[in-house]
Specification:
By secondary structure, the protein is α+β, with helices and mostly antiparallel strands. About 30% of the residues lie in helices and about 20% in strands. The chain folds into four domains: about 10-200, Heat Shock Protein 90 (2-Layer Sandwich), CATH 3.30.565; about 220-335 and about 375-435, Ribosomal Protein S5, domain 2; about 475-545 and about 665-705, MutL, C-terminal domain, dimerisation subdomain (formyl-coa transferase, domain 3, 2-Layer Sandwich); about 565-655, Ribosomal Protein S8, Chain: A, domain 1, CATH 3.30.1370.100.
């Protein structure tokens, strides 16, 4: 006998099941889609223990006859298509005839169903893929599918399931998508006996959005309505004060089917260029309506990915509809990007001009940027600004698709590091008043000086100092030349106050006493020069503050005496998040309370009542948004422990609370940061590897100047 054999029916089914059903959430998605295809107006989803022990989906759709019930659980058995030609224009959500076969082969399933025209309903029972029988059953019109003991017969798959709370969150997210894509259906979701979602089913998308995301979110939306070459766009986008730190708030539906589409995402984000800071993502609930023949949903078993016969009209329909909605909403004129493109033409300098002020590239860029700021509507909501990014770029749909969607040459060129975000935007720079205050520090950043203040040109080249041996870290690792925000503020005059014994500090890690040092001054509003013994330190003030905050908060976390310094706020800060992000914050409650926060989790909001000592209230919203984003991202990685995931998130969140480079702070603020930093055992690096301070030995300088 040869080596190759056809797999048994059971094994083949188990393999196929893995593709469609990998966790309770995917089973729920399939069962809800069946209910929608059956014309249901009410769908109720109930789960227990994240869906692993029980899932029940009840609908009032068309139901099935006793004769059809055993067919429903057969592979490749469907009532939705008949032949290959039907694949070209699918209008139902299901069509593969695989879902019930897959789910029933890895669980214990019962289906109770009754058609309107029948007097009595029927029930089918399957256990681990084996059909036990079909019997008469008294039930109302419609269908109820009960799934118990998911993956009981496939331990390998069960092992991959996450904690019940995480699985329940994933189910919740899928139920929410169905509710958003079908506002005409009343959707209820009950998890472990608690009603989590209850939509009106009144056909109004806004009511569904309200039910899913809450009042604040629903109040900050701009409606969408547009049509381009037969592609219809409808739904909502968030205003620029309704943004997220990741893409979790973006839901795209094609013909009311939830999909992940790079084209749609890219078009949305490109339309938001200049309306949002670089590290923020727009939110949307968007339906893309087009002839089913123009889109192939048969790309992936889970039907999440789609293929457009032509991406361009889809991109353009989204881009123009969103852009128009934004422009109308803010009432600002369309940006004339041509006029804003920096020219970078260097004026030729003749000898006779040598004493005249030279119009440098830097000044040109700043001036251009100022024009952009004036034209761009300020982003409300007091978000912090990003470091200035290269000037805004407007590109055509073709360019965009080839660069970012189909992964053409230069695909990574404009993406911001790490995130893969496909938009290379110019971050609109917020007025200095939006800047968060320095943690622990009393004073606001200093007011910016008048326009005619001369701009210090940045170093064109790294300084050619030393042989590199004594400079740590080396040049290549040093941060790029700083760019002061909008306008430069007056430099802090060289400060000759000697610092000796620092005051005592609450954080365990920061109590050390450093040898005396002297702050010499600050350059580019970013780097503080410190002299200490036989060495000089160039300290990145933002990185230093970030590290101090991180060390303090981490020290809080390690305290076992629960005596963490926490400050109660006069008014709680409400942070709007996605419901699954709120769930994630809740699941890290112990750690977040450990560092000094006190908070209450509501459906789409975290209400923060107290925060760690030393953190400014203005940083709380950004910190929680960062925690939510980072924890959600990190938790999916099985290699990382929860502690590691939290520490990484804590580091990112510390960044949000730190003073910013390129901005002017009072000498006291700067002195505070240096003082705290100098107490740390090793000041040159932060724990995540970013340089904080660069050390130059006196003898290196002496050597450079040929003194020895
Ligand atoms: N809730 C339901 N109401 C009515 N019919 C259903 C329901 N769920 C499943 N069915 C029937 O069972 C068939 C198989 O379902 P499924 O395995 O999900 O495949 P598909 O949805 O791809 O056709 C469907 O084609 C449909 O006829
Ligand atoms: Mg189906």
């Amino acid at each position: 006998m040869g080596n190759i054999q056809v797999l048994s029916f059971e094994v083949a089914n188990l393999i196929a099941a893995g593709e469609v059903v990998d966790r309770p959430a995917s089973a729920i998605k399939e069962m809800m889609e069946n209910a929608i295809d059956a014309g249901a107006r009410h769908i109720t989803v109930e789960i227990q223990s994240g869906g692993v022990s029980l899932m029940r989906v009840t609908d009032d759709g068309c139901g099935m006859s006793a004769e059809d019930l055993p067919m429903a659980i057969r592979r490749h058995a469907t009532s939705k298509i008949r032949d290959a030609a039907d694949l070209d224009g699918i209008i139902t959500l299901g069509f593969r005839g695989e879902a019930l076969a897959a789910i029933s082969s890895v669980s214990d399933m019962r289906i109770m169903s009754k058609r309107r025209e029948d007097d009595v309903g029927s029930m089918l029972e399957v256990r681990g893929g084996t059909l036990l029988g079909v019997s008469e059953f008294g039930c109302g019109n419609g269908t109820t599918v009960i799934v118990e003991h998911l993956f009981a017969n496939v331990p390998a798959r069960r092992k991959f399931l996450k904690r019940d709370a995480t699985e329940a969150m994933a189910v919740g997210a899928n139920v929410e998508r169905v509710a958003l894509s079908h506002p005409e259906i009343a959707v209820r979701f009950i998890s472990d006996g608690v009603l989590k979602l209850d939509t009106a089913g009144d056909g109004q998308l806004k009511s569904a959005v309200y039910a899913v995301y809450g009042r604040d979110f629903a109040a900050r939306l701009i409606p969408l309505a547009g049509e381009f070459e037969g592609v219809e766009i409808s739904g909502f986008i968030g205003r620029s004060d309704n943004v997220r730190a990741n893409r979790n708030g973006q839901s795209f539906f094609i013909n009311h089917r939830y999909v992940k589409s790079r084209t749609a995402q890219a078009a949305l984000e490109q339309a938001f260029v200049s309306y949002l800071p670089a590290e923020k993502y727009p939110v949307c609930v968007m339906n893309i309506g087009l002839n089913p023949a123009r889109v192939d949903v048969n790309v992936h078993p889970a039907k999440l990915e789609v293929k457009f016969s032509n991406e361009k009209p889809v991109f353009e329909a989204i881009y123009y509809t969103v852009r128009q909605a934004l422009e109308q909403d803010t009432g600002r004129p369309a940006l004339k990007t041509e006029a804003l493109k920096p020219t970078f033409a260097k004026p030729s300098v003749r000898l006779s001009d040598a004493t005249a002020p030279i119009e440098t590239e830097r000044q040109e860029t700043l001036r251009q940027r100022q024009v952009t700021i004036e034209q761009a509507a300020p982003v409300s909501g007091g978000r912090t600004s990003a470091d200035p990014k290269p000037p805004q770029e407007r590109i055509t749909a073709e360019e965009y698709i080839s660069r970012y969607v189909t992964g053409g040459a230069g695909g990574s060129a404009g993406r911001s590091a790490g995130e893969g975000r496909p938009v290379p935007p110019q971050a609109p720079i917020l007025p200095a008043s939006a800047a968060p205050q320095a943690a622990s520090l009393p004073a606001e950043p200093l007011p910016v000086p008048p326009d005619d203040m001369p701009v210090p040109p940045p170093p064109e080249e790294p300084p050619a100092w030393s042989d590199g041996r004594d400079v740590s870290p080396d040049e290549s690792a040093s941060p790029p030349a700083p760019e002061p925000q909008e306008e430069p503020a007056p430099q802090i005059p060289p400060d000759a106050v000697p610092h000796t014994e620092p005051d005592s500090d609450p954080a365990a890690d920061l109590t050390a006493v450093s040898p005396p040092y002297r702050i010499v001054g600050e350059v580019f509003f970013s780097y503080v020069i410190v002299e200490q013994g036989e060495r000089m330190l160039l300290i990145d003030k933002h990185a230093a503050h970030e590290r101090i905050i991180f060390e303090q908060l981490r020290a809080n976390l390690r305290r076992r005496d629960y005596a963490v310094d926490s400050q109660l706020m006069l008014l709680p800060v409400e942070v709007m998040l996605m419901s699954d992000e709120v769930g994630m914050i809740e699941s890290y409650r112990k750690q977040l309370e450990g560092i000094g926060f006190t908070f209450t989790c509501l459906r789409n909001t975290v209400r923060v009542d107290a925060l760690p000592a030393g953190i400014e209230t203005s940083a709380v919203a950004d910190m929680f948004a960062t925690f939510a984003a980072q924890l959600t991202e990190g938790t999916g990685d099985p290699k990382l422990t929860r502690d590691t995931v939290f520490e990484k998130a804590l580091f990112q969140a510390s960044c949000k609370a730190a003073i910013k480079a390129g901005r002017n702070y009072s000498p006291e603020q700067t002195a505070y940061v240096v003082d705290q930093l100098m107490r740390l055992p090793d000041v040159t690096f932060c724990p995540h590897g970013r340089p904080v301070a660069m050390e130059i030995k006196k003898r290196t300088l002496d050597h450079q100047f040929e003194r020895c």
